[in-house]
Design goal:
493 residues
């Protein structure tokens, strides 16, 4: 259910974007892309507490933490999140006029409407960031079926139901963002109530006697700060290019850039449910001393990511221009954004695979190497990003992204594996990664010579058949899939 919901959210969010451009215009869509970037940058204030509460919830369920300690930990984190939400959201609200007039390059939108939209963004960003705490509790409790269904409901409200609202009240940025505020409030309340239902029910007197204290954070502060640092670096890694582009490009062209990057980012979103499912489970298995079972999950999850995200990424790389044309019906957008889409898809594909050593370190509770690797990643990315963006524009940002991710994937993952898992890296790389990716890469290369349709409708059918074929044949190459297929058709091994 978790994966189905994530696939629904990803596909719905991507498929609906051309309608945003049609209803609101490219410049308004650039404002929506700016909103997405603000939410990501707001993650710098997380301080590593979201993944920490998820891990501590998993440890509480495994019996490592007592009800009293876990309750006080949750309350302390809740107060910290609330305080930061008010301060961060308030600062963004206060700076709304300055952002609209001095940072964004507005050509056609009404400046006063843009200021109102940014103020609404400030409130939405604070609310949706705070839900990270409650979502962490739900994930740590492994309530993934409930969370998957809830994500489908929220995505439907956010992406689809906004159109009837705009049809009735008017298709403009004020109506759009006012409705997004309503969705953010709904999401916040629902996740808060679900998280509270998972906290221990302490006796009333004991519950009332608990005071706010940083003491429960003391044993995990090192782990939390490690995550905080890596999360901050992650935001820098994934959002610096978007921040630079929001200043250098007009809102209209920033919208086109955001569109290409968002499609490529679907690769990350495809892998998201898998990491969300295995991280608390791996942490629990490590706490229980079941290392062999942990490694089995680690390897099988790698193959699953290479199947799903790998096929998706390779298809985007091979057929970027055709996909953009079928999707937007705009040859100019397809031609302009296709090179950016190819480069970012390649970079994100390497990134989702290179993230697995982080999942291992998360389970072990030791993120020192991940912090060092992230610092090296950023140190490599920023100068490359500046040089290539200055000389080649948004395509240059993609070039810097690919180079940095290739170096990190090819070298750093091996260093981490050799530190914690002797004689594991090359077998993981050969059998869990390259063996799976070789099939879709070969098939995509073959199909590029036969995909010559010029009609948009024919092109859509052709791309759909190619994608289905690549996914199915790649899945068929995996032992797990073949065993399940044989079981379905009643063939005994």
């Amino acid at each position: 259910m978790s994966y189905i919901s994530q696939a629904y959210v990803v596909l719905l969010g991507i498929m609906i974007l051309p309608f945003y451009i049609t209803w609101l215009g490219a410049e308004a869509y650039g404002l929506i892309g700016f909103f997405a970037m603000l939410q990501a940058i707001f993650g710098l204030l997380d301080l590593g507490l979201t993944p920490t509460i998820s891990r501590e919830t998993a440890r509480y369920r495994a019996g490592v933490l007592s009800e009293l300690i876990y309750t006080q930990l949750f309350r302390t984190m809740n107060l910290i999140f609330s305080s930061i939400a008010v301060l961060g959201g308030g600062a963004l609200y206060y700076l709304s006029e300055s952002i609209a007039s001095n940072w964004l390059s507005i050509e056609n939108l009404n400046p006063s409407e843009v200021v109102i939209a940014i103020k609404i963004m400030a409130v939405c960003t604070a609310l949706r960031w705070m839900t990270g705490l409650y979502r962490g509790v739900v994930i740590g409790g492994e309530l993934l079926v409930w969370l998957g269904g809830f994500n489908i409901i929220i995505a439907t409200m956010r992406f689809l139901l906004v159109f009837p609202v705009m049809w009735f009240f008017g298709a403009n940025v004020t109506v759009f963002f006012a409705y997004q505020l309503l969705v953010a409030i709904t999401e916040f309340v629902a996740l808060l109530l679900k998280a509270l239902s998972q906290t221990p029910r302490l006796p009333k007197k004991l519950s009332e006697s608990l005071s706010w204290s940083l003491k429960p954070l003391a044993p995990i502060i090192s782990f939390s700060m490690s995550i905080a640092l890596t999360s901050g670096l992650w935001v820098i890694v994934t959002q610096t290019d978007k921040l630079i582009m929001s200043k250098l490009l007009t809102l209209e062209h920033y919208g086109y850039f955001t569109l290409a990057v968002l499609v490529a980012n679907g690769i990350m979103m495809i892998a998201g449910p898998i990491s969300g499912a295995i991280m608390p489970r791996m942490a629990r298995l490590e706490a229980e001393g079941k290392r062999d079972e942990l490694l089995k999950i680690y390897s099988s999850a790698t193959r699953l990511v290479c199947l799903l995200a790998g096929c998706s990424g390779i298809i985007l790389i091979a057929f970027a221009e055709k996909i953009l044309f079928v999707w937007t019906a705009d040859l100019h957008i397809a031609t302009t954004a296709s090179s950016t889409l190819k480069l970012y898809a390649a970079g994100y594909l390497m990134l989702v695979i290179a993230a697995f050593p982080y999942y291992l370190q998360y389970a072990l509770g030791n993120l020192k190497l991940h912090v060092l690797g992230s610092l090296l990643f950023v140190s490599c990315l920023l100068p490359l990003l500046y040089f290539f963006t200055k000389n080649f524009g948004m395509t240059g940002a993609g070039i810097a992204w690919v180079i940095t991710n290739a170096v990190y994937f090819l070298f750093w993952t091996g260093i981490v594996h050799n530190k914690y898992l002797e004689k594991f890296h090359f077998s993981w790389l050969a059998f869990d990664v390259f063996k799976v990716l070789a099939v879709p890469a070969a098939l995509a290369l073959l199909f590029t010579f036969s995909a010559n349709s010029e009609s948009r409708t024919t092109m859509f059918i052709e791309l759909s058949l190619i994608s289905i074929t690549i996914f199915f044949l790649t899945a068929l190459s995996l032992n797990e899939f073949r065993r399940k297929l044989k079981a379905i058709v009643g063939i005994n091994e």
